[in-house]
């Protein structure tokens, strides 16, 4: 286990105790300190922008610096701006209704930091999925311990150096290591545990947290479907899907996993998608702008899914074959035409640049099939007909949904981002994030003029007066 920012005796439990003692001693930080923290974090990220772009590229083997700027740095810095702009309003105590018999007491809700928050993050967007939860937890006044993914060690080291340079270890600390460290980390009695990663590991996290009754937010994965309605332009949907599926080579939690296309448009869609993919990545997989997969194991798993689909009768279309600088972890954009439920590719989250096309008879048919599976993290519907959109939105349950585009919901500052059912629980971004990392404490301020005494022994007539 490698570690950074851990006190001299080096145990995770000591680090937590250290942060908790500092939290108790200092109390909830005032708004000025929270705004200053956010500002410092934002500046530090921007100062290291090109280093982050380089390290993430090195961790992946190949990932465009523009992709890192657009998909990671921009949403985080904008998200921080949004937190800074609205924090004062969110922190303001809210007055609540007091029933007649308790007046003139006053009721308020005070938003209080939870204390020490643990964050476990994945490799696919190693900066954004670590620093956006961190910024939100800091905005809510917490102290934070982070366990990033072992697959992006250079990025973790850079984040570690950056955070150690701007925050004391009793406020923010990074612990690095693999699943063993993750397991020890998630067994700590945090005040909240925020996890982003796979559904399988999410279950282990929740089991471990339950031992200490630690509340969890689980940002998980799953198969996010796309429904293309009959009325929608095929070239337009192809363009949106190429962006959603091939950015970061499909290694995006809200990437469209598979697409329902009307039976008679499957061939036209496959042709349009192929054309759009060639336009976006003129060199195919050899394009500098086309990301490689995070490891050989991830690459080989996807090849296995493709071969299983081929063996079960699907037609496989691959766009180019020569990988970027001979990287064996690059996988060509792939289309699986004629995907059926018996294929493994339709049973597990793909998380790569492979798009199964599923022929469907109607939008109702697609809805029925989606509702037969786990609740997805995201759902995409393409239609210009309001009645079709309304029907899809009201008859399916997904963490988020986008009408006529893909993936961009992650970059919205003022929308809850999270899953439902097997794709997760809880949400963050904007005010929902602030609430996730805060305790809403109800406080009743009694008045000296209270009539409550009339409800206590020896009993007066208040009950008869209130109930009539
Ligand atoms: P993962 O679940 O394998 O790992 C995530 C983190 O958990 C890593 O830091 C890892 O070291 C740690 N971990 C592994 N085993 C652990 C254990 N037993 N106990 C505690 N911690 C453990 O996920 P990944 O491969 O890094 O990321 C890909 C998955 O994450 C996909 O399923 C994707 O859909 C999902 N994801 C979800 C979101 C979202 O916002 N909902 C975002 C990105 C990725």
From TrEMBL:
Regions that span the bilayer: none
Record-level GO BP terms: aldehyde metabolic process
Key word Glycoprotein present: no
NAD in keyword set: yes
Cited InterPro entries: Ald_DH/histidinol_DH (IPR016161), Ald_DH_C (IPR016163), Ald_DH_CS_CYS (IPR016160), Ald_DH_CS_GLU (IPR029510), Ald_DH_N (IPR016162), Aldehyde_DH_dom (IPR015590), Aldehyde_DH_NAD(P) (IPR012394)
Family as reported in the entry's similarity comment: Belongs to the aldehyde dehydrogenase family.
Name this polypeptide is given: Aldehyde dehydrogenase
